[in-house]
């Protein structure tokens, strides 16, 4: 239980250690979503899943050793379908497995359609101090197109509740939707900023294999903006959010200074995190090796595996220094703060290729921050994968 007060621990700039909990269930599958989410038409046995989460935590603790948790994130799926008592039991389990100081960020994802004031108060009492909501659009036709179960009125109600109950709040929007003009997106984004407290996640619509949209797109029945139009929308997004005091600190994430997502910074700064639950991924350091873990995706199969073996891990890989250096570069260049060059050099055992770096510098795709950091420019962010590929070789 907590009281209403909350003071966030300061960001030290260190990667930290996060705990990610994956709740895999949704009320409906969105046509653009390729996340590990599943619809069940019978009530989920939450007590049984809680016990499995607690059991898998013990396996992760054996891999991680003693750690101080700097953030917790409950993602999905739709974690706001969990009972508040389920959330409380999971958070209590984390606190009994690792050291959890007061004042760390504890985030839960929520959908506006599954929000009630009593549940929000229950999540807050359980220890959640930041909510991240999947709003996705601020007009009803596009919400229907995206397969969302809420309308704009539901979204605004959920945003108001979140602002009243939680110390910190973020919500997501998807842009580069079919027939979306820059002018329409500017209006929608400015409206979103007027509702936001301190953080927005703004994602371009991508067509992912295995989704309903993929089949429609392949058949020519779903046309999304081309690369040039998508780039124009991206550039408008950067300009508007910066002007309104919520600049990008990562490719798709925007925050007022000091309100960046601590948990996601752990990923992008290439810290360690324990991934618990169906389909969850983790990175845990043992000596000079980083262990990459991935769990069974199917919820009930994961559940049976945990009950039998103590975990649902189906993939485990020991990443050598070269693989770690590549991941550090791939993650860190997403950030406005860039990559710690000394850390990359220590892992890779080399300096960046001078010819490739010089070329990217001359093209205006990267820049040095003194001698200690390297980052993408706004132009480089538009071709991030190509920049990473060049520097990693």
From TrEMBL:
Annotated keywords: 4Fe-4S, Chaperone, Cytoplasm, Heme, Iron, Iron-sulfur, Metal-binding, S-adenosyl-L-methionine
InterPro entries: Coproporphyrinogen-III_oxidase (IPR034505), Elp3/MiaA/NifB-like_rSAM (IPR006638), HemN_C (IPR010723), HemW-like (IPR004559), rSAM (IPR007197), rSAM_sf (IPR058240)
Location of the protein in the cell: Cytoplasm
Task performed by this protein: Probably acts as a heme chaperone, transferring heme to an unknown acceptor. Binds one molecule of heme per monomer, possibly covalently. Binds 1 [4Fe-4S] cluster. The cluster is coordinated with 3 cysteines and an exchangeable S-adenosyl-L-methionine.
Protein family (similarity comment): Belongs to the anaerobic coproporphyrinogen-III oxidase family. HemW subfamily.
NCBIfam families: hemN_rel
Protein name, as recorded: Heme chaperone HemW
């Amino acid at each position: 239980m907590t009281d209403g007060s909350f003071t966030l621990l300061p960001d030290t700039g260190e990667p930290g250690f996060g705990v990610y909990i994956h709740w895999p269930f949704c009320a409906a599958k969105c046509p653009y979503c390729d996340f590990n989410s599943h619809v069940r038409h019978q009530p989920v046995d939450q007590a049984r899943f809680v016990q499995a989460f607690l059991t898998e935590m013990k396996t992760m603790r054996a891999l991680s050793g003693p750690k101080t948790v700097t953030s917790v994130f409950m993602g999905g799926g739709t974690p706001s379908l969990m009972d508040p008592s389920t959330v409380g039991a999971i958070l209590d389990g984390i606190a009994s497995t690792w050291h959890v100081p007061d004042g760390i960020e504890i985030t839960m994802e929520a959908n506006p359609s599954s929000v009630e004031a009593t549940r929000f108060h229950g999540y807050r009492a359980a220890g959640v101090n930041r909510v991240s909501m999947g709003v996705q659009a601020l007009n009803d036709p596009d919400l229907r197109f995206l397969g969302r179960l809420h309308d704009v009125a539901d979204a605004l109600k959920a945003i108001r509740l979140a602002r009243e109950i939680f110390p910190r709040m973020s919500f997501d929007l998807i842009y580069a939707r079919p027939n979306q003009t820059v002018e329409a997106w500017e209006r929608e984004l400015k409206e979103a900023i007027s509702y936001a407290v301190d953080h927005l996640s703004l994602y371009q619509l991508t067509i992912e294999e295995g989704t309903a949209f993929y089949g429609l797109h392949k058949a020519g029945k779903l046309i999304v903006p081309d690369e040039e139009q998508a780039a124009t929308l991206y550039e408008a997004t950067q300009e508007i959010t910066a002007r309104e005091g919520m600049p990008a600190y990562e490719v798709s994430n925007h925050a007022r200074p000091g309100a960046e997502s601590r948990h996601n910074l752990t990923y992008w700064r290439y810290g360690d995190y324990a991934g618990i639950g169906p389909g969850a991924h983790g990175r845990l350091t043992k000596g000079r090796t980083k262990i990459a873990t991935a769990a069974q995706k199917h919820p009930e199969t994961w559940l049976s595996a945990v009950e039998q073996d103590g975990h649902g891990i189906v993939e485990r890989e020991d990443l050598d220094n070269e693989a770690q250096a590549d991941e550090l570069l791939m993650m860190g260049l997403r950030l406005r703060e860039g990559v710690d060059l000394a850390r990359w050099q220590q892992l890779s055992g080399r300096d960046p290729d001078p010819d490739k770096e010089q070329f990217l510098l001359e093209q205006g795709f990267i820049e040095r921050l003194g001698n200690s950091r390297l980052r993408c420019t706004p132009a480089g962010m538009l071709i991030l994968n190509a920049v990473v590929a060049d520097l990693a070789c």
